[in-house]
Amino acid sequence: MSPTIVVEQLLNAAALSALLFLVSVGLSLVFGILRVVNFAHGMFYMLGAYVGYAVAVRSGSFWLGLVVAPPVVGLLGAALETFTLRFIYRRPPIYQVLLTFGLSLILEEAVRIVWGATAKSVDAPEWLQGSLLLVGAPYPRYRLFLIALGGLVAAALWLFLTRTRAGLLIRAVAQNAEMAGCLGTDVRRVRTAVFGLACALAGLGGVVAAPMLSAYLGMGIAVIVDAFVVVVIGGLGSFGGSIAGSVIVGAAQTWGNFFVSEIAMAIMYAVMAAILVFRPWGLFGEEE
Amino acid sequence: MHLTRRDFTRTVLVGGAGLGLGFPAVLRRAHAAEPIKIGVPTVLSGGNVQYGNQAKRACELFADDIRARGGLLGRPVEFVFEDTASDPATAVRRAQKLVEKDGVKFLTGVVLSSEALAVSAKCPEWKTLFMSSFTGTGALTSTKFNRYSFRPNTSGPMGARTVSLYLQESPLKRFFGLGSDYAWGRDSVGSFQRQMTAGKKEIVGTDFPPVGTKDFASYIAKIKQAKAEGCFLVLVGQDASIFFKQAAQFGLTREVKLVMEIVELENMKAVGDAMQGVIGGSRYPFTVDTPKNRDWVKRFHAKFNLWPDMFDGETYQALEWLTQAIAAAGTDDVEKVIAALEDSTYEAPEGKRVMRKCDHQAVKATWIVEAVRDAAYPHLAPKILATFPGERVTPKCRTEEFA
């Protein structure tokens, strides 16, 4: 195997991991704070892709879509949390599963009605469209941009969670919501904010995924399956875990497809199963 | 005999309007002019909707044309559309509704091979004639043959044959085969592999990405790794578009000659310049340079403000051939139309086609085209590199084998 191909595949894995991270970190955060497994999370990713597409088509600017879509999707997520999820936190988990599953069906149909059934292709900005010579072979610039963006978001999120007061509150609620409430934290607001933030991150993932994969119905389902694997591997509710999980799943898929494409999917699940056997709470999760 | 209001409006709308006939004439014709109905169970929603749109456009243009000629056997022709949503079971249900409720005797415009096989299998029972216009699977005219089904269009084996014949003569030696992971992709890549190895060319690898793959990076790396000089691609519509964009970004388009079993206009529109130089088979390129075709393409463009894709053409041609047989039979009686179609000759845009009696497969020409920039069109257009006569690309009767 030539070094060019090794480098290319490493970068491919990194780009895929970056996308997976943007989606799975929100899923993980929501579970950590709200104790809800959000089946609708992938739909916010899809919604981000479509809103980004709509803005880009009307304004002619991909960047405007990148700026507009995440807050729009985030606000929608926060609203849905306020008007639906909030009422059933105390119910058994099956209620939350049913609710978020129902929401995901509604969101998918809504996208179908608004944008139709055919996939939308989105163009990256001109200077990201071409390729760059790396180790003597062209490599798509857009994928390098994805890797950089993933790293940037990870760093920013880490700083936010560890170095700001809001981040401190989030961690406090994650550790012990009742105690945090007793100490004067408005737990309900923290939950809504975290849900909104998670949706916005998924939306951001969708916007940047679109130029590489196009915006299509079903992208939400496709990504949520991978994102669940990521958080199971990394540990539900763990920030570091979603980074590690994303890297592992991205690598397993990329190299799996390269060497044994027929069983590439199986490899990913085998890794997950192995981790479930030896560390049921995930690599970075905490035993409960 | 009393004429109901609905019969009256329908007759006026379908048969009378635009003919400029006097009012009493319409009334007089109404009794005899029960419309000849053609059922079109096609994909009108979901991922394959662009194919259903092609079937619909062809029917609409054909409806205009036959109306202008005063109908068929003095009767108006009416199309009834149903949505199959790409699902074989739904396709059968909708087709049955067309046959039993709408009283159609002819079906066409079925998109997927799986749907077509399911519908075709029911046709003997329904005594309904199925005129394929998309169906690629070799089975329709071999193992699953029945006398109610006809294929005036190019089949998948014919497409793979065309590409193999063309590449036999090319200087390229090492090939990779990449096909969507389902019947069509696997059949075609398999057929390509057999024919190329028989012709002393080397197949350096094959792979089958699932339908709906969005990231082809690993597959592209594999094609590079295999040091292929050419890559044979059998990917469904949208997957092909995504593949070409990514292949261009990774520089694969420049290193490896990309060859598709079918090069569709839809792909060229979606992908743009990144597809320039790609070659492949075509079941019908709208750039066929004959007076009949030039005229048709002009009228198509005038009506839809679009240049026709492969199945716009194949569906229109299927309708033309079918109605020619109905006219020759002098009746819409299915058994008599079958007899009229068998061994019939049809003057297609590119020349003569013959409907073989033994397996109901048309002996027809196929093409190799290249996606090129042409100032006459707003997108890439198929430039014809080679035309293969029907005798060379049509399989032996009721088989998928070639002489």
> How many beta-strand runs of chain A?
2
How much β-strand is present in the residues of chain B? 15-25%
Largest interface summary: A-B, 35 and 27 residues
Terminus-to-terminus distance of chain A? 44 Å
The side-by-side strand order for the widest beta sheet of chain A comes to 1-2
CATH topology of the largest domain in chain B: Rossmann fold
What is the makeup of the main sheet of chain B? 7 strands, mixed
Features:
heterodimer; A: 288 residues; mainly alpha; B: 403 residues; alpha/beta; Rossmann fold; seven-stranded mixed beta sheet; five-stranded parallel beta sheet; 15 strands; 18% strand
Describe what this molecule looks like in 3D.
The complex is a heterodimer of chains A (288) and B (403). Chain A is mainly α and 288 residues long. Chain A has helices spanning 3-34, 41-59, 62-83, 93-115, 126-129, 141-163, 165-175, 177-182, 187-213, 219-234, 239-259, 264-278; strands at 131-134, 137-140. Chain A has a two-stranded antiparallel sheet. In chain A, helix 6 packs across helix 7 (165-175). The termini of chain A are far apart. Chain B is an alpha/beta fold and 403 residues long. Chain B folds into two domains: 5-154 and 289-363, 3-Layer(aba) Sandwich (Rossmann fold), CATH 3.40.50.2300; 157-282 and 366-393, 3-Layer(aba) Sandwich (Rossmann fold), CATH 3.40.50.2300. The longest helix of chain B is centred in the N-terminal third of the chain and has 20 residues, at 49-68. Chain B is globular. Mean pLDDT of chain B is 89; it is low at 11-31.
